[in-house]
Amino acid sequence: MKQGSVEGASATTVLALETSSRTYAVAVGDGETPLAQAAARRDDPEFPELGVLVDGALARAGLAFSDIGTIGVDVGPGGLASIRAAVAYANGLAFSLGVEIFPVSSLELMAIAAQRAHRGPFLCLKTAHGGNVYAGLFVNGETAEMRHGPPCSVIPAIAGGLTRVCVAGPTKEEVPDLLPDVTVEDSGIEEADVAVLYCVTRATVADPGRLVPVASPINEASRIFHEPASSRHARRS
After folding, report:
1. How far is residue 144's CA from residue 92's CA, in Å, rounded to a whole number?
2. The whole model's pTM is what?
3. Could you report the per-residue pLDDT of 201-229, keeping only the tens digit for each?
4. Is the residue at 229 inside a domain?
5. What letter would DSSP give residue 224?
6. Secondary structure class of 4 (helix, strand, coil)
7. Residue 73: inside a domain, yes or no?
8. Considering only Cβ atoms within 10 Å of each terminal Cβ, which end of the chain, N or C, has fewer?
9. Range of the domain at 140
10. How far apart are CA 144 and CA 228, in angstroms?
11. What is the largest CA-CA distance in the chain?
12. What pLDDT, in 10s, does the model give residues 1-54?
């Protein structure tokens, strides 16, 4: 056993980093649920650095940095400075520990959370600059389409052909007006959840195809928001 670790800690120990909303959150553990979590709003005058949150969570879990086997990080979209900070921290820590990273978008995390209690397809939204939105459509556990732009054009373009859709995100209230011919269900989900990130990262450890040595943040310039869905599926095949 490594010094400073708890009995049972192993390469399956997961550290999850979620910073796509106003709240920074971390979770750590090696079981079905995290052993410890920590969170802080970035608009708090006494807001600590991400590393401080990680230190505190590890201490409460009785774990050391050397116990971490996989790092899950929300790569956005979200607050660009926050996402860049989390991705940079994840990359630096992964390099120093010699472990890999599970990068996942905030939109996909919301879809994963929504599917626990609702039926898809899922339309997940994040507020962007200039009155724009980031939008992701998820069908049968897969990313069907990702777009960035004005809600009045993006949302009908990717979900207007559906008969029903379940929505998540802080701007979901405007969706029914933009999709008058679609039955719209509110998932009640506003943001990505670090506990969901922890669970999906832990599940990925057994199927490491999505693990990478270096993660990259997602923003409006990212290719995923501008390429046809057919091109994305072709790259995966």
Report:
1. 32
2. 0.88
3. 999 888 878 899 999 999 888 888 887 65
4. no
5. G
6. coil
7. yes
8. C
9. 107-186
10. 10
11. 60
12. 232 333 444 557 999 999 998 889 999 999 999 999 999 987 777 778 889 999
